[in-house]
Amino acid sequence: MQTRRRTNSDVHKRSALGRRLPSFAKNPAVRLPVERIVAERRWLAALVKGSGVPRRDRDDLVQAVRMAAWMAVEAGRYRPGPSVHPTRALRGWLQGIAWRKVSHYRERAWVRQEVPVADPWSVWPEPPRDDELLVDARERLLAVRLALSRLPRRDRKALALAAVGHGTRDIARRLRMPASMAVQQLGRVRRRLRGLLER
Fold first, then answer.
1. Are 39 and 66 in contact (CB under 8 A)?
2. Cβ neighbourhood burial of 84 (10 Å; 0-12, 13-18, 19+)
3. Is pLDDT of 109 > 70?
4. How far apart are the C-alpha atoms of 148 and 70, rounded to whole Å?
5. What DSSP designation does 196 have?
6. How far apart are CA 64 and CA 71, in angstroms?
7. Buried/exposed code over 25-64 (b: 16+ C-beta within 10 A; e: otherwise)
């Protein structure tokens, strides 16, 4: 029995037949005025309400549907059939957009995990409190203050400038000394402060 071998052209013909455009894509694009979309606000609100969206989010979702519809019209994606009534065609198209927006709304993590309460601060967990750590931190702070008070004013100024992020050249310029001397002074002051804290 003789068999016919498939060629590349046959494969391309079959794939082209399988990729036929949907019927609505053959219709011409309609430039719908934005007022027509805005006029369906109450119908969209009822549709969103029927989808189970909470009241606090309905207005935002309706606005998102209208904005998406208007952008689709501007891009030429509104192609209703000529035999369908204009209002019925528009509402059917808007219903598809609303369905997608509602499904995206439900998939958001903040929607799935949100637990509404009257007073959000009442359920906010308080940070753990450790009195021993607080006392230790206060004692260390007092020790640093006492050690700094025993340093000359010029040394305290050099340490303060270094602590807030100034470089050696900037510190030398502010203290009116060469950069090499500023490096030596910073090292000497830090060693002296360390010695005072270790007493």
1. no
2. middle
3. no
4. 67
5. H
6. 11
7. eeeeeeebeeeebeebeebbbebbeebebeeeebeebbeb
Residue 115 pLDDT greater than 70, yes or no: no
Which residue is listed with tokens 């640093």?
A: 144
d(CA 135, CA 53): 51
Cβ proximity of 111 and 54 under 8 Å: no
Q: Using the predicted structure, report yes or no on whether residue 104 has a pLDDT greater than 80.
A: yes
Q: Tokens 């501007």: give the residue.
A: 74
CA distance 92 to 135: 68
User: What is the signed CA dihedral for 62, 65, 71, 74, rounded to 10 degrees?
Assistant: -90
CA 21 to chain centre: 37
Q: Sorting pLDDT into bands at 50, 70 and 90, what band is 185?
A: confident
Query: Which residues are CB-neighbours of 59 under 8 A, at least 6 positions away?
Result: 45
The pLDDT-based confidence of 111 (bands split at 50, 70, 90) is: low
Instruction: Residue 183: name the closest of 165, 163, 169 by CA.
Output: 169
